C-alpha cells in the first residue's frame, strides 16, 4: 500500500503537524474515532454500565501497585513473609501500596461479579455478543488464576495451607492426578519451588493473557456494539449517515458520565484502604499475618471470599450426596428424552454420557472427591454456555415474565449462600444447605432452555426507552 501523508499549510499549528505525521504512520486518530468519539453507544445506559469502566480502573490500579510491590518483594520461602513486613513497615508508603493491592483484588471481583450480573439481567451474552461473553468468561478464569497465585505470595498461614488444599485437589484426577499435583507444586510439598513458579505466573504469564483477553473483549464489543437495558439493537435503526438514532458518542458523553461512577468507587475504595483494609478478615485473613508453618494447620482453612461459592460446591460433594446427583442426572436425562426437541442421535449420545457418569459416581469406581473437583470446575465453566442455554424471546429481564425475575433472585440468593457457607467451618446443617444450593445453582443453567422460553412475554419496543434527566 502506498504511503500517503496529508499536505498541511505551512502555518498549520505544530500539534496538527505532529498528529498528521503520526496518523500517516500509526492509526491514532482513526482508532480514537472508532473506539471513542465515533463509537455510538445506546443512550439509555443506567448505573449497571459503570462496572465495565470500573473493572478497567481496578486493572490499572492492580498493575501499578503490583509493579511497586515487586520492587521490594522476595520470592523466596525463607524471605517472602519478611519482605512483605518490610514493605509494610519500612518502605515509604509501602503499607498504602500493599493495602491498595490487597483491597484491589477484592474490588476487582466485586466489580466483575456486578458486571456479570448486568450481562445476565439484560441478556448481553445473546446473539451477536456470544464472543464478547466468551472473552469475558476467559477474563474471569484468568482473574481466578491470578488471585489464587497471588494469594500464596505473602507466605502466611492461610496462603500456605490454602495453596496446599487447592493444589492437592488435582490429585483426585484419575491416572494423572498425582503427577499433575507434583508438577504444579514443583516439589512434593508446597515450598520454595511452588512460590517461585506462582510468582512468575502471577507477575508475568497470567497478566499477559489477561491483558490480551481484555483487549479482545473490548474489540469484540465495539465490533457488534453495546447492549442496553432494553436488549434492542440500536444499529437496526440508523439515519442517512448510518448513525444509530438511539446512539450517542461514547466520548464525551459516557467518558464524562463514568467519572461519577469512578468518584463514588474511589471514595468507597479509599475508605476501605484507610479504615478497614482487612474488612473483618474477609479481604485479609488474620491467619495470614502469621508466617507459614508446615507443622501447624489452622483450625479452619478457607479460600478468600471470592472463591467461596465454588469452594462450597466442592465441599458439598460428599459420598452421600453422590446418590442424589445420580438420581438428579437420571431424572434430567428422562426429562430431555420426553421434552427436548433434539434429534434422536443427540438424545442417545446424552443418555450414554449420563449412564457413564452415573456408573462413574458409584463409590467403587470414582470417589466423591474427584466428582467434587469436577463440579467445582463445571460451576465456573458452565457460565460459558449461557449464550446457547437461553431460549428467551426477549433479551432483557424487563420484557420477560414476572416470575423469571424470582428465578434470578433465587439464583442470586443460592450463590450468596454458597459464598457465605464457604467461609464457615462445615457442619451437618451447613453441608445440607450447601447441597441444596448447589442443586439449584446447576438447575438454573441446565433447565434454562425450557424455563427461559416459558410464560407470557411483554412486547419489546422498536426503539430504546429513554427519559432525559
Report on the architecture of this protein.
This protein is an all-alpha fold and 469 residues long. It contains 18 helices and two strands. The protein has a two-stranded antiparallel ribbon with strand order 1-2. Helix 6 crosses helix 7, helix 6 (130-152) packs antiparallel against helix 9 (192-224) and helix 11 crosses helix 17 (428-446). The longest helix has 33 residues, at 192-224. The mean pLDDT is 92.
Put simply, the count of helices is 18
Radius of gyration: 25 Å
Question: Which range best describes the helical content: under 10%, 10-25%, 25-40%, 40-55%, 55-70% or over 70%?
Answer: 55-70%
- Mean pLDDT figure: 92
Mass-distribution shape: globular
List SSEs in N-to-C order: HHEHHHHHHHEHHHHHHHHH
Strand order of the largest sheet: 1-2
Number of distinct beta strands:
2
Major beta-sheet overview = 2 strands, antiparallel
By oligomeric state, this entry counts as: single chain
Q: Strand pairing plus helix content: what structural class? A: mainly alpha
User: How far apart are the first and last residues' alpha carbons, in Å?
Assistant: 49 Å
Quote the beta fraction: under 5%
Low-confidence stretches: none
